[in-house]
Structures are given as C-alpha cells and as structure tokens.
Amino acid sequence: MERLTGESLSWNCVSRHRGGKVLNIGPKAAGIDGFAGFLVSLGVPFPTLFAWVVWLVELVGGFLLLVGLFTRYAAILLAIDMAVATWIVHLPNGFAAGTNGIEFTLTLFLVTTALVLSGPGRYALEYAIFRRKLMLTPAEESATDGNIKA
Hints:
Elements: H1 6-22, H2 31-42, H3 47-67, H4 71-90, H5 103-118, H6 125-130, H7 138-144
C-alpha cells in the first residue's frame, strides 16, 4: 500500500475539484451571465468582469495545477479565489459543505496555500521543461543556490 503524503493528498484534492470546474460543474454551470447575476445578488461590483476573472482563474489555473506548470503562480490565484468565495458566499452558511458552508472552499484554500508554500512535486511538468522549480522559497534558494534538479 502506498504511503499517503502531503503531495499526493493535495494532488488528489486539487485535481478532483479542478476536474469538476473544467467540466463546468459548480456555480458557473449557468454560464458567465448566470454567474454574473449571482454576483450581482451578492453586491459584488463589476459582476461581469469578475465572473470572467473567476472563470479564467479557475479554468486556466486548474489546468496549470493539473499538469504541474507554473504551480505556485496558479496556486496563489486559486487560493485568493477560494478565500473570496469562502468569505463572501459560504461563511454565512456555517461550516458543513452539505449546507453550502465553508468546509469545501476552506479546504481548497488550505490545499492551494500548501501548494504555494511547497511548490510542485517531482512529477510536475515544470521540472521536465525547466529542470527546476520556477519560484523558490528562501530556504530552497539558500540550500541549493537555485539549481534544483528533477
């Protein structure tokens, strides 16, 4: 039996959620106009603009996380997206995901934040193309002088 690591757990959570977003499951299933209308009901300014921004961040960012390319950059944008969704939409509904609470979006926020801090795994496309992580933490930089090999 394979040992469960933080990397495999975060990969599993993110890929399952982002797969749903790519397949148009979730709040944007009604399309950009429907989602913009939902944002209007929440009092979000420039709802059509932000509907497009959320759609692009989740689609492109989800794809980039799925293949492991520009992982930290995509994870930062997705973490912001999930933090805003948690705060504006789900917080008033309590914790449980069954009542549209913060449980699921908070988990996604924490997972994407962990990806920002840890970076891509060794099987990420980022390693195959660039032979290193694109964004290093200060500890990684000092330990390896910026040359992380696959």
